Structure formats: C-alpha cells, structure tokens
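#struct-pred

JT: dropping the chains for the assembly here, can someone run the whole complex?
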Amino acid sequence: MHSKSKVIWIDGVSCYGCSHSFYNYPEIKELLEKIELIYHPLLPSNEFKFQRCDILIIEGAIKNNFLRLDFDLIELISKLINLSKKIILIGTCSVYGGIFGEGVLFNKENKGKFFKYKDKIISIPGCPPHPEWIAYAIEMILNKKRLILDKENRPKEIFSYTSHMGCVRNEYFEWKIDAKNFGEKEGCLFYEQGCQGPYTHSSCNKILWNEVNSKPRAGTPCFGCTEKTFPKKNLFKTETFMGIPANIPLGVSKRAYLTLAGVAKSLKNERLERKLIDDSE
Amino acid sequence: MSKEEKKLEIMKTALNLFAKNGFYNTTIADIAREMGMSVGNMYNYFPSKESLAKELLIYTSKLFGEELKKINEMDISSKEKIKKIVELYFKMAKEEPELVDYFMRVYLSNKEIFANGCEGMLCVSAFVTEIMIFFEEGVRRKELKNQDFFAAFGLFMGYLGGLVFLFREGILGKDIEEYTNSVSENIYNALKI
Amino acid sequence: MIVNKKIITKIEGEATLKLYKKNEIIEFAQIEFWQYRGIEEFLKNRHYLDACVINPRVCGICGHSHLIATAKAIEDALNIEITEKAKILREITLGLEIIQNHIKWFYLTLYPTIKKIDFFKAFEFSKEIAKIIAIIAGQFPHNSYAIPGGVTCDLTNLDILKIKNSLKKMFDKYQNVIDIKGDSKDLENLFNGISKELGKSINKFLVLGDNLYFKSNGDVEFVKEEQSISFNKNVLYKDEFVEVGPLARNLNNKLIKVIYNSYKDSIYTRIFARIYEVNLIFKYLLKIIDEININEKSYIKPKNCSGTGIGIVEAPRGSLIHKVEIENEKIKNYEIIVPTQFNLSNGTKNKPSAAQASLMNENEKFADFIFKCFDICAICVSH
Ligand code: SF4
Ligand code: SF4
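RK: done, full complex below.
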C-alpha cells in the first residue's frame, strides 16, 4: 500500500467559516482517515512547518502585512504553493477575495497574485462552501479522477448549476409572482428581495445545506456568495432599471426574458395567486 | 394570394372601416362586403370579429416592435433614440392613421373584447418588450432616471398619444411632424437622470 | 525572570501568549491579538440590511450570535417590534449555536491540551445541531434569516415537529457528555491527576444579555474600551475587569453554584458551567418550542429609517455588544465589542484581566489548558 496523501490546510484572512462548514460533512471521519493531515488550524495535527505536500488547502483571503503563524501571509502562501502538487482554494475569500481582501487566484474580476499557478489550482468558492463540495474536490484528487473545470477553475459538476435550480419557489418564478414580503412561503424572491439565484453558479438547491434546506427555501435571498462579486451592495433588494431586473437569468437574452416574463405575467396561475395553506376549500 | 396575404388585406380593410364607422358599428358582414367576399368565406379567415381584432392588435404591436427594435439596436444615446421613436410615431400617425388610431383607441377603449387570450400585455408584448429594453438600457447607461416602469411608460406613450389625438381631431395648428423636436426634447427632459 | 512568547493555535484564530515566569511558575501573562479585518469599516455607507450578511462573517463558529446582535441593534435603532414567533425562533437558533460551539470547544480545543480524545464525537453532535438550525434558518454556518422586523422563514407544523424531535434526540445523546445531574466521565477523566482548584481568577462576573434564560446583571452604559498593548482594545466594566460567559451567566443554577462554592472560579468550575449549560439550554428550548404560534407573522416591515441602537446577546463566549448608527437606511457607524475582549484584556500585574489572573501563579505546563478554557475567539477579536 502506498502512503496516504499529505494535506496542509492553511488559513489566510478569514472567519474560519469554511472549516466549520466542513465539520458538518457527514463522512468527515472516513475522509480524514484517508489522508495525512499534516497541518490544520483547529483539527489535531502537528506543529506547523514547511514541507512538501500533495494537497494544499487554502481558506481565506490574502492581504499585505497580515501575520499568520508568525509569517507574513503572502510569503507563507507563496512558499507553500511551491511545495505542493495540487491546491484547493476553498471559500470565496480565497478564490476571489470576498469580504476580507484579495483572492489567491483572482482579485475580484482581475487576475490574482498567484494566477500563474492556475494549472494546479481548483476553486471551490462559497461563503462558506458546502462541505460536500470541499470533500468532493479532495476525493477527486485522491482518486486521481479528472475534474472538468470552468474558466475560473470551478468544477463543473458543482458550479454549472445555478442556486436557483431546484428551489421550492421555482413555480413562483415561472409565473413571475413575487414574494409580497419577507417571511412568507409564497412568492419568488427574484423581483423584490434581491435573490441572485438565477445567475449564481452554485448547487445549493440541489445539494442541500446541512442536508435539509437552502437560503431561498428559508425565505432568504441568495446573495451570490459563490461569485467574484460577493458581497454586492443592497443584498436584500433587487436592482432594477426602470422596474426591470438589472440582472437576468444566465444564458438568456434580455429580449427573450422580457417576452417570456410578459407572457407569464399576463396569464395568471390562479393557484399560486393564493396563500398555499389556508382554510378555504 | 396566400392565406396570410389575404388575411392581411382583410385586416387592412377592417382597419379602414373601424376608423370610418367606429369599431362597434362595423360588422363582419360590412368587412366581407368591402372585400367582395361572402360572409361564409370570411369566417375561414377569422372566426369572429374579436379574433380579427386580436390579430390586428398583435400585427400592429409587432410592426411597432420591429421598428423599435431597429432603434434599440442603434449605437446612439437615449436622447437620440427618443427622437427616433417620436419621429417613427408621428410618421406612422400621418402615413397610417388607421393603424395608429386602432392601436391607441380601439385597443385602449375596448379592452373587454381582448379579455380572452389577450390578457394583460399579451397581445402587445412585442411592442412593450422593446419599450422596456429602451428604458432599461437608458438607465443602465446612466442616461435616464431610474423609476417605476409604468410611470415612465405612461409619460412617454400618453404624451405621444395625446398629440396624435389632437392631430387627428384637426386641432393642431401645425403639421404633427413639426412637433418632433420639441416633443422629443420634453420627453427627454422628463426622463433624463 | 524568563519571558516565553508563544503563538497559540488550535483556537478560533491565533494569539500570542507572553509568559513571565520564575522557575515554572507563571508570574504574569500578556495576550496579544495582531490581526485586523476591518468589518466595521466595511459596513459604512451600506444599507443596514447588508449588515445581516456581512456580520455573520465576523466569525465562523459564532456568526449567528453576530447576526442576532445585528438584528437587535438595528431594531433598537429603528424602534421595531417583532412577533413572539420570530423571537422564539431566534432563541432556538442562537441557543443551538451555543450548543454546537461548546461541544466543539470541549473535544476539539480544550481536551487535546491534556489528553487525546476521539474528537469526531464533537462533529457527530454538532452537525446534527447545525441541521436543526438549517431547518429554521436555511443553513449553518452563515445564514441571514434574522432581519430587522423578524425572520425570513415561514415554518409549517411539520418543520416544528422535526425540530422538536431532533432536539429531544440530541438532548438525550448529550447525556453521555454530561448528564442532567452533572455527572461526566469525560470531564472527570480530563481532570484525572489535575487539581480542580487550578486557575482561579478575578471572581467578578458580568452578564449583559437577556436572551434564553439568562438574566442580565449590569448595564451596557458602564462598559468602556481602552487602548492596550495589543491590537485589540481592553474592555472594562465600571473600570474593572470582569469575566463574561457561561460561568458568569449560570451562577444562579443550583448545581453550578454548588461546584462554585467548592472550587470558586477555577477552570474546573468554568469548564463545568460551560458544558453543563448545554443541558440547560436544551431544556429551555424544549419548553419554548411549544409556545410557537405558527399563525403569527414572521416579519413586519420596519417604518423608520434613522436612529442609533444597541444589540446585546449572550453569545457562546459571553456578552456580545453591537452598536449601530443609521441615517436614512444607511449605516453611518458600527461598533462591535466581543466577549473575548472582556475575558482576555491586557491588564497589569496588580490589575489583571480574567484570563491573566487565572494563569498567574500556576505552573506553565497548564498554560495552554487554562488559557483555552476561556474558549478564546481571536477571530471575533480581529473583526
Ligand atoms: S427565490 Fe431565488 S432561487 Fe428561489 S426560485 Fe426565486 S429566484 Fe430562484
Ligand atoms: S443560496 Fe446563494 S448565498 Fe446562499 S449559499 Fe447558496 S450561493 Fe451562497
């Protein structure tokens, strides 16, 4: 038997939320037993030292003049990247920068400081990323399987979906019925409440959170937390130009979308106009 | 003559009669007579006056929509687009007064006949979609003020409609096309950022 | 005197602990946090609702407390009342966050400073707790379901049933960690050969939050921040250092009081209070879940758009304070004071903070143990 893959998990500027998300992975024990975790900020591991590794996992953004493990963060990452075979960037911070700084691969829309290592990088954005997405990336490497990536190095098996796909409010979206308010089962959050589901690459309504739910299902708009633009301003309000959503679903032309929307709005779905659950017959 | 062409001819004839005698006073028999067709044959093309009215509406909306689309696709400012739209509208009002009349008066004042299968904006969607795109892009390019769609739509279309009405009633002192500049200017000033 | 500077990892974030020792005995300790992430600045000029997305990102383990504190602060500023239903749901999710925090801290942070343990026990538990939060709030960590005016979810009785059943199941399961009588094999094992008198501290306690069954014993008006040697500011109450957290807020519990009477504010008492608190929270949640009236509104739209407010909650580590100033729906100013700042302030040898005091006069081999029993959140401190 060959030896286990060596993994170093390092934190940049972050909230440790990606780690805490990962702890909810149902098969975490089995997964950790398959690897040799030589460093993790919280999970039991040895003292940190520079060494070669098979997989480097980076959580958190990068930033100048930030100390981590008593090293300058950017120098630390730069050294580790050179010592590792594959790199998994977990979380929107480490892929694009997110709230806290610059990403490793990208700096928001632009190339990031370590863009030249693109070939050995896998991006798992999300604030936080779903535990299964993280586990998936690790497993695929362990099993030497080919990952199909998009141009931002995100695995297509996860990120070619939109978070809108599979939302229980989809029928309301179809018929252009907006949620009248927060805190209601009825209505889609795309028109007023700022839901970014239809144009956010992620699979939150397919691979459910904590195996049971998702933000839009719970009445919270999708904030597009897997995207380079996260966090936009006015996250609870749909940006509109003259009442027309400024961002429309991925892959459709504005003309086609507006035509379809007009048709759906004109023809009503009686059932969806009413409360889902009430005392009427 | 193909069936489609024939239909178009019937619609044009109907338009004329609607304009002359009013929508309610015009019957299918009147239209058939004017076309030199039997009433029975007419029904092969349009099963009812309502269906004719509806198709007419879709037709006009498409016609306007296509012209608007050309304007939308031009690489010009919203201000210039407004002028082009006003020009288009006034030109149509002069050249095809029945059409504009129909679109403005018959549709808006006889909404009940469009209740079935023509709900909401359904039959005018080609036109409304292009107007939406015009507005949306104007705001996106930071040329027009971001406001409620209908507030802007009403201002634009209501104004044009009002002028065409005055023109058709023979009240305007000058030729309607002479108002193009001042009307465009006013609309732009009302909508700009 | 020897000075030993050590970077503390395996906590939420990192800190430096400087120990001044004579032989092996710690005479004085200084704690430094050196990171800064600029959340308060980031919030300025944004719509106040954005704070419900940004603020949970203060911390991956107690972000939900930050969310609730945010909603409360804004509600205070804009004079917003929420329904009972919304209140109860928030209590449940916040209580559950405390529970998952404590169990992770016990097996993952604290235990390994002394002994090896199967830390997966913590995850077995915390992931189920996270699941209950997710039924209500959409996901854990990092949801934003509590917004000024109420909550975004609209549960059915079916959901409530699921939550209740899971709560019961997890409460039962928790009896293996520490039971309702206070017996805990794992805790006794941990202290096997270690004095329960270890790490006595300043014996001054503060509770500011009124959530769950906790009772406030102070007024936020007397909380002051002052510069310190570290990046973060010291936090004092009436010019004194105080201890906040599970021990402070559970001293009125009979069982905890008995332990306190024997061992005072030693780390044993502190640890006991912390893991026992989980039982008390479970009991409380099982009570209030039956009080939910599903027909009440989840959310009421706020009317005002300017004002200043304070939101306080008892978070996993103690009293958490958020202050906000809103002008025309935009955030003008935002300030956060976290529990770790209270407990880990940098005082002097004569006037030490809670963590400093508990380290002083103890053998340095216990430094990590004593230090971590405060469940340090460097992440929160470096907001
Ligand atoms: S709420 Fe969001 S994710 Fe759900 S259907 Fe509407 S747009 Fe899609
Ligand atoms: S629903 Fe949207 S904001 Fe929520 S986790 Fe998924 S991608 Fe992120």
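JT: nice. Chain A has two domains: 5-157, 161-272. Chain A touches chain C through 56 residues (CB under 8 Å).
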